[in-house]
Amino acid sequence: MNDTVVPKVEMRNISKSFPGVVANDCVDLKLRKGEVLALLGENGAGKSTLMNVLCGLYRPDRGEIYIDGKYAEIHSPRDAQKYGIGMVHQNFKLVDSMNVLENTILGLRDEPFVPDLKRVRSRLVDLASQYHLDVDPSASIWQLSVGEQQRVEILKLLYRNAEILILDEPTAVLTPQESHELNRVVHVMKQEGKSAIFITHKMEEVMEFSDHVMVLRKGRVVDETSTAETTPKELARMMVGREVLFQIEKKPMAPGKVALELSHIEALGDRGLPALKDISFRLHAGEILGIAGVAGNGQRELAEVVTGLRRSSKGKLQIDGKDMTNKSPLEIIRRGVAHIPQDRVSVGAAGDLSVASNLAMKQYRSRPLAAGIFLLQNKILDFARTLIEKFRISTPSPKTQVKFLSGGNIQKTILAREIGAARTLMIAVYPSRGLDVGATETVRRQLVSQRDAGLGVLFFSEDLDELLQISDRVAVLFEGKMMGVFDTNTVNIDHIGMLMAGMDREAGA
Amino acid sequence: MDFLTSVLTITIRAGTSLTIATIGEILTERSGILNLGVEGIMLMGALSAFATVFYTHSIALGFLVAIGIGGLLALLHAFLTTTMRANQVVSGLSITLFGTGFSSFLGQRLGPASNNFRLVGLRAERIAPLAPDWAEKIPILGAFLNQDIMTYAVYLLIPIAWFFLYKTRPGLWLRSVGEDPQTADAMGIDVIKTRYFYTIIGGMLIALGGAHLSLSYTPGWSENITGGRGWIVIALVIFSMWNPARAVWGALLFGGINAVQFRLQASGTSIPASFLNMLPYAGTIIVLVVMTWWEALSKRVGAPAALGTSYMREDK
């Protein structure tokens, strides 16, 4: 593309820091009209921060933004909207209790005092059919699947005539099929002259979606290049600054006794509807059982039942040969069960507490970290420093509040704590979700080494490649039902994909 | 006047101040701000309205002063909880403590020298029922007509507040701020401004509810004239599930039990008066707990999701 053309968006010299962290350091970015720019980088590289600056949520400490060559004053999301900038955030910006129509017009000043929802609906339906973004306009957001919610987010931007779309890790929550659909939608928007910025840390997506790619590392631009002129391997190297091993070495499985057994487990979800239906399986010590499935098909509930956080309404749960049905989380922890929860920020870690406190959270009840009811702060700090070094948690100090760490480092903190507490079982729910290549590698290696150390590992993931690579056997969850358990050496990935979508016609094949 | 109509008349009269204050608190809580200062603001509203009318003989001015005082106290709450990000419960409770103490203090200082500077026991103009004499003779309907201008205003306020909240653009924005301030902000809605605005509007309505007590329901000033109605309002907001259309039922329930116990006391029953005085409170709380529990089980309803939390854009 010709560089003399005025770029649609130009960010010059953007710097932004948070307490203890420099998120962006003199970043320049150019987005040309009708182009898709991939923003690639590890967690904590500053991709989301940079985009939050562009969409008006964060104020940069320094730097300017130009739209169509003109200086743009963006101090709030409202200003950004005026320049046609719209962002699909990683955590969707949708009000759960409201319906699709209400969410669509939220914040729009040109809607009349009493919004004409019929008109909104008809325009939304038009847009939906134009872009093949099928969604029920009168459904409340909480009733929609994650994929549908993303469609609502995109429709919302289209309704607002956004010219510049920012997508923050849009495929993290989608099935492979839904990702392809998204790619097609982005393609149509491109043809209409809209531009897009696409945040990701997956090489394949950079290749599939983008025209240009910009790599960020530790808040700085490493390189910018045309996608056609690069390779995934080269990108990965730029991203982490060293060669990455994509393969994990795994010893053959040496299964021991049954570590976890579920018989006919049923449980209700948060909305009082059945979330788990007649789940039975066995997990042996020294084995990794992978659970495949699109998010929201009972994974979280299954993990919660096993860890004592959710009551099962029926069935039996045995851990290490002992009946642990509906026992308290503490009793289950005392059986040596570790849990890496799905929601690392609100369930996995206490954000306002220090890294050290979070690391000590499963050991503080007894020596050496406590004497009676007193916590031995120095011992806790020493203990934390050891783990911070061992797991390469990057934090300014053990006393830093966990909420100031990046997602990957929060996850490493949880991992370090849980591995210390694991003796029989490790329940890992999407442990590598949203993590960069380096942190993902750490997580995967640790899971395999836990297995080799004789633990049973229950491993939930949405990334099929990862799942098949790590697990010894894999099971598919769909709408709370177990769709079968397969040996990873013999299973066919397409078959798993079909089961994830609820189609088991080929099950006999 | 038949028994039912007379009980209903008192019920509606007693429910008026509650309904106004409840709708005010609903608007505030819908923006995500919990204002536990209701009791204090109602007391200050009642006192300032009565004192103003006593000296100026203008009921309109009395209402205006009450509204102003209520708005100021709510502004203080908004400033502490949104700008200073103080704990909403603590801030609200301090306003109640302040309002209770200060209104009692002023009640002993603002009066005329002839009454030893006390406001207690004085008379001032009061708002009287609007309807002509014949209207109150109509069974049932008469109870609705035989009311003062404030009650008539409440008849309008309920549907207007409901329509505003659920059908208009600013109502939609208000709800989004209380449900999910992050989303509201990202959609270009000024969360802080919204919270300030509805906290102040809420405070004004709450003070107006207090003014109705001292200018109409129990005319005159007496210490702690609200008798804990501010706390009943907090309960009614929950019972109404933050819906103005339902606020009226809770207020009528409290007013109704009140009316019945009045009649009982007047008829010279042997039940101790303090027990009867307790009934409206105990009855309301029991019904609220049972209803809310049953309701929460059967439907997906609940408090605005962000109620009680402060918001700052770059917070993690």
UniProtKB/TrEMBL annotation, chain B:
Annotated localization: Cell membrane
Main location: membrane
Annotated TM spans: 6-27, 34-55, 61-80, 89-107, 149-166, 196-218, 230-254, 275-294
CDD domains referenced in this protein's UniProt entry, alphabetically: TM_PBP1_transp_TpRbsC_like
Keyword list, A-Z: Cell membrane, Membrane, Transmembrane, Transmembrane helix
Pfam families found in the cross-reference section: BPD_transp_2
Membrane topology: Multi-pass membrane protein
One GO cellular component term: plasma membrane
Any one GO molecular-function label of the UniProt entry: transmembrane transporter activity
Cell membrane keyword on record: yes
The protein's name in its UniProt record: Putative glucose ABC transporter permease protein TsgC13
Provenance organism: uncultured spirochete
